[in-house]
Amino acid sequence: MENKVRIRLHESGWFRLSDRQPVTRDEMMTVLYSLSRLLIRATYHTAQETVFLKNVYMDMASPLVMDGSSLPSVEQCRCPQGYAGLSCESCSPGWRRVENQLYGGRCQQCQCYGHASGCDPVTGDCMDCRHSTAGARCDRCLPGFYGDPRRGSPDDCKPCACPLTTGNNFFAERCVARPTLEDRDAYECVNCQEGYTGARCEM
Protein backbone atom coordinates (compact mmCIF):
# COMPACT_ATOMS: atom_id res chain seq x y z
CA MET A 1 0.00 0.00 0.00
CA GLU A 2 1.31 3.45 -0.88
CA ASN A 3 0.41 6.65 0.91
CA LYS A 4 1.10 10.10 -0.44
CA VAL A 5 1.36 13.06 1.91
CA ARG A 6 1.48 16.66 0.75
CA ILE A 7 2.63 19.27 3.24
CA ARG A 8 1.81 22.89 2.55
CA LEU A 9 4.09 25.50 4.11
CA HIS A 10 1.26 27.86 4.93
CA GLU A 11 0.13 29.13 8.31
CA SER A 12 -3.18 27.27 8.11
CA GLY A 13 -2.95 23.89 9.81
CA TRP A 14 0.28 24.68 11.73
CA PHE A 15 0.46 25.40 15.44
CA ARG A 16 2.95 26.35 18.13
CA LEU A 17 4.28 23.47 20.23
CA SER A 18 4.38 25.64 23.35
CA ASP A 19 0.64 26.34 23.62
CA ARG A 20 -0.89 24.48 20.64
CA GLN A 21 -2.26 27.75 19.29
CA PRO A 22 -2.44 28.32 15.50
CA VAL A 23 0.54 30.22 14.12
CA THR A 24 0.04 33.64 12.62
CA ARG A 25 1.11 34.67 9.15
CA ASP A 26 3.91 36.73 10.65
CA GLU A 27 5.19 33.79 12.72
CA MET A 28 5.10 31.45 9.71
CA MET A 29 7.03 33.89 7.51
CA THR A 30 9.58 34.40 10.28
CA VAL A 31 10.23 30.65 10.43
CA LEU A 32 10.38 30.28 6.64
CA TYR A 33 12.88 33.16 6.45
CA SER A 34 15.58 31.03 8.09
CA LEU A 35 14.46 27.60 6.88
CA SER A 36 17.54 25.62 5.82
CA ARG A 37 16.28 22.01 5.90
CA LEU A 38 13.28 19.84 6.61
CA LEU A 39 13.57 16.80 8.88
CA ILE A 40 11.07 13.99 8.39
CA ARG A 41 10.51 11.40 11.11
CA ALA A 42 8.84 8.16 10.10
CA THR A 43 7.91 5.44 12.58
CA TYR A 44 6.32 2.06 12.07
CA HIS A 45 5.31 -0.93 14.17
CA THR A 46 7.73 -3.88 14.25
CA ALA A 47 4.97 -6.25 13.14
CA GLN A 48 4.49 -4.31 9.92
CA GLU A 49 6.26 -4.98 6.70
CA THR A 50 9.28 -2.92 5.81
CA VAL A 51 8.40 0.73 5.20
CA PHE A 52 10.25 2.90 2.71
CA LEU A 53 10.28 6.67 2.47
CA LYS A 54 10.84 7.73 -1.12
CA ASN A 55 10.26 10.48 -3.64
CA VAL A 56 10.66 13.33 -1.17
CA TYR A 57 10.85 16.63 -3.01
CA MET A 58 10.01 20.27 -2.52
CA ASP A 59 8.24 22.38 -5.10
CA MET A 60 9.82 25.74 -5.73
CA ALA A 61 8.42 28.64 -7.71
CA SER A 62 9.71 31.80 -9.30
CA PRO A 63 7.63 34.86 -10.15
CA LEU A 64 8.90 34.68 -13.76
CA VAL A 65 8.95 31.84 -16.26
CA MET A 66 11.40 31.30 -19.11
CA ASP A 67 9.55 33.51 -21.60
CA GLY A 68 9.56 36.45 -19.15
CA SER A 69 5.86 36.30 -18.30
CA SER A 70 4.75 36.24 -14.69
CA LEU A 71 3.06 33.48 -12.73
CA PRO A 72 -0.01 34.79 -10.93
CA SER A 73 0.08 31.83 -8.55
CA VAL A 74 3.36 33.01 -6.99
CA GLU A 75 2.68 35.28 -4.06
CA GLN A 76 4.22 38.74 -4.19
CA CYS A 77 3.55 40.88 -1.15
CA ARG A 78 3.33 44.64 -1.02
CA CYS A 79 6.03 45.24 1.54
CA PRO A 80 6.06 48.00 4.16
CA GLN A 81 8.94 50.42 4.19
CA GLY A 82 12.26 48.71 4.91
CA TYR A 83 11.26 45.26 3.64
CA ALA A 84 11.84 43.65 0.25
CA GLY A 85 11.39 40.31 -1.54
CA LEU A 86 8.43 38.31 -2.77
CA SER A 87 7.28 37.68 0.80
CA CYS A 88 8.99 40.70 2.40
CA GLU A 89 11.62 38.28 3.71
CA SER A 90 14.58 40.63 3.16
CA CYS A 91 15.55 44.09 4.30
CA SER A 92 15.63 46.91 1.75
CA PRO A 93 18.96 48.59 0.88
CA GLY A 94 19.81 50.99 3.67
CA TRP A 95 18.08 48.79 6.25
CA ARG A 96 19.37 45.93 8.41
CA ARG A 97 17.91 43.11 10.47
CA VAL A 98 17.93 43.64 14.25
CA GLU A 99 16.87 41.74 17.36
CA ASN A 100 16.57 37.98 16.68
CA GLN A 101 18.48 37.69 13.39
CA LEU A 102 18.39 33.88 13.44
CA TYR A 103 14.60 33.81 13.31
CA GLY A 104 13.94 36.87 11.20
CA GLY A 105 13.88 39.79 13.59
CA ARG A 106 12.74 43.08 12.10
CA CYS A 107 14.27 45.51 9.64
CA GLN A 108 15.56 48.81 10.98
CA GLN A 109 16.87 51.71 8.96
CA CYS A 110 20.64 52.16 9.04
CA GLN A 111 21.66 55.09 11.22
CA CYS A 112 24.00 56.89 8.83
CA TYR A 113 22.36 60.33 8.98
CA GLY A 114 21.83 60.30 5.22
CA HIS A 115 25.55 60.10 4.43
CA ALA A 116 25.62 56.44 3.23
CA SER A 117 23.33 54.35 1.06
CA GLY A 118 23.75 51.16 3.08
CA CYS A 119 25.19 49.47 6.12
CA ASP A 120 26.53 46.10 7.17
CA PRO A 121 23.48 43.84 7.65
CA VAL A 122 24.93 42.39 10.88
CA THR A 123 26.87 45.15 12.64
CA GLY A 124 24.98 48.12 11.25
CA ASP A 125 28.24 49.90 10.40
CA CYS A 126 27.69 52.36 7.56
CA MET A 127 29.45 51.58 4.29
CA ASP A 128 31.13 54.15 2.04
CA CYS A 129 30.42 57.34 3.97
CA ARG A 130 29.91 60.35 1.71
CA HIS A 131 29.81 64.13 2.11
CA SER A 132 33.25 64.25 3.80
CA THR A 133 32.08 62.13 6.74
CA ALA A 134 33.63 59.14 8.50
CA GLY A 135 32.98 56.70 11.32
CA ALA A 136 30.82 53.63 11.84
CA ARG A 137 27.73 55.87 11.69
CA CYS A 138 29.15 58.58 9.37
CA ASP A 139 28.77 60.79 12.42
CA ARG A 140 32.03 62.75 12.29
CA CYS A 141 33.82 64.84 9.72
CA LEU A 142 36.99 63.84 7.94
CA PRO A 143 40.22 65.62 8.96
CA GLY A 144 40.21 69.05 7.34
CA PHE A 145 36.44 69.43 7.74
CA TYR A 146 34.25 70.63 10.57
CA GLY A 147 30.57 70.49 11.46
CA ASP A 148 27.97 68.11 12.84
CA PRO A 149 27.08 65.32 10.36
CA ARG A 150 24.28 64.16 12.65
CA ARG A 151 22.12 66.97 11.28
CA GLY A 152 21.64 64.86 8.15
CA SER A 153 22.47 67.41 5.45
CA PRO A 154 25.00 66.84 2.61
CA ASP A 155 26.83 70.07 3.52
CA ASP A 156 27.13 69.32 7.27
CA CYS A 157 30.93 68.95 6.98
CA LYS A 158 32.56 72.08 5.65
CA PRO A 159 36.24 72.43 4.70
CA CYS A 160 38.26 74.44 7.17
CA ALA A 161 41.19 76.72 6.28
CA CYS A 162 44.23 76.32 8.54
CA PRO A 163 45.05 78.81 7.12
CA LEU A 164 44.04 77.54 3.64
CA THR A 165 42.11 74.42 2.59
CA THR A 166 44.71 73.04 0.17
CA GLY A 167 47.01 70.23 1.34
CA ASN A 168 50.28 72.19 1.11
CA ASN A 169 48.83 75.05 3.12
CA PHE A 170 46.86 73.11 5.72
CA PHE A 171 48.94 73.07 8.92
CA ALA A 172 46.58 71.54 11.51
CA GLU A 173 45.76 68.02 12.63
CA ARG A 174 42.05 68.81 12.34
CA CYS A 175 39.55 71.51 13.13
CA VAL A 176 36.45 71.68 15.32
CA ALA A 177 33.32 73.81 15.16
CA ARG A 178 33.18 76.70 17.63
CA PRO A 179 29.90 78.43 16.74
CA THR A 180 29.14 81.78 18.32
CA LEU A 181 26.10 84.05 18.33
CA GLU A 182 27.79 86.22 15.72
CA ASP A 183 29.19 83.42 13.55
CA ARG A 184 27.35 80.10 13.43
CA ASP A 185 30.04 78.61 11.17
CA ALA A 186 33.01 79.58 13.32
CA TYR A 187 35.68 76.92 13.82
CA GLU A 188 39.11 76.50 15.35
CA CYS A 189 42.12 74.63 14.02
CA VAL A 190 43.47 72.01 16.42
CA ASN A 191 47.11 70.98 17.01
CA CYS A 192 48.91 73.25 14.57
CA GLN A 193 52.08 71.77 13.13
CA GLU A 194 55.38 72.71 14.70
CA GLY A 195 56.22 76.29 13.91
CA TYR A 196 52.63 77.44 13.38
CA THR A 197 50.15 78.99 15.80
CA GLY A 198 46.91 80.93 15.94
CA ALA A 199 43.24 79.96 15.69
CA ARG A 200 43.83 79.21 11.98
CA CYS A 201 47.52 78.24 12.23
CA GLU A 202 48.02 81.43 10.27
CA MET A 203 51.04 82.67 12.23
UniProtKB/TrEMBL annotation:
Classification via InterPro entries: Laminin/Netrin_ECM, Laminin_IV, LE_dom, LMN_ATRN_NET-like_EGF
Pfam family, one: Laminin_B
Glycoprotein recorded as keyword: yes
Record key words, sorted: Disulfide bond, Glycoprotein, Laminin EGF-like domain, Repeat, Signal
Database matches in Gene3D superfamilies: Laminin (2.10.25.10)
Coiled-coil portions: none
Domain Laminin IV type A residues, every copy: 1-76
Protein name: Laminin subunit alpha-1
